[in-house]
Amino acid sequence: MGSFNGYPSLLNLKTKELQEPLLEELYRLLTFCLRYANNVQACIFQEFRIEEDSVMFVVNLTVLLDCLSIFSASSLPGMTTALKMCYRGYGYPLTLFLEESGVVTVCKIQTQEPEETLDFDFCSTNVVNKIILQSESLREAFAELDMSSEVLQITMSPEKPNFRLSTFGNAGSIHCDYPKDSDMIEAFHCNQTQCNRYKISLLKPSIKALALSCKVSLRTDNRGFLSLQYMIRNEDGQICFVEYYCCPDEEVGEFET
Fold first, then answer.
1. Fewest Cβ atoms nearer than 10 Å: which of 36, 53, 124, 146?
2. Pfam family example for this protein (predicted)?
3. Could you tell me the pTM of the whole model?
4. Which of 75, 109, 143 finishes a domain?
């Protein structure tokens, strides 16, 4: 790993030495950045150093994933890959050092100025309802619903059905109802009845994160905006979060079918 030393940078990220599962986890997490945000905590890295309050830039996601997978096709069982990412500052490329069995590959990716980030103004003080679910149970629920439907209707209520998922597709109307004391629900905080529809085409990208997660926090605010926060635990027990926000397609009447 001595080949990595001495490279000046404002941002210095190095995965735990010889921890390929961690590198694979980072690779998988980065594939979700097209539609929503990842919160990768500093503790997941062996070394995390940043000399400014914040650093923000844009890189081509496809190029970044291609660079991270350079060794994946040729790696032998037991082989591990270490990664270091460096960024000198405005106008400089993002530099990746990948090392495996003493072989170091250096990739430089052109950076661009970030566009203004879409702000959903989702404030925790405006959250009306919140449910924490086991991901496995939510995956099973999605498997039962008709994904030919244009919308997914989510109903949360202090009264029964406390939590309902509904679709309206080629197979007709399908409803999955879960009481608040269901085994799939770990926490249920519902202040008022809300029934909103969300376009399934906008929710489908989040299913990738659902497949890797162990828990899901589902929140809605007073406008019906939906927040999905997926908790992902890697093989070392470290935790990352993927958040997804979606505006309602339309608000419907109470328990409309």
1. 53
2. Rad1
3. 0.63
4. 109
Q: Is residue 78 part of a domain?
A: yes
Cβ within 8 Å of residue 193, ≥6 positions away:
155, 156, 157, 158, 159, 254
Residue 195 inside a domain? The answer is: yes
**Domain end residue (candidates: 109, 133, 149):** 109
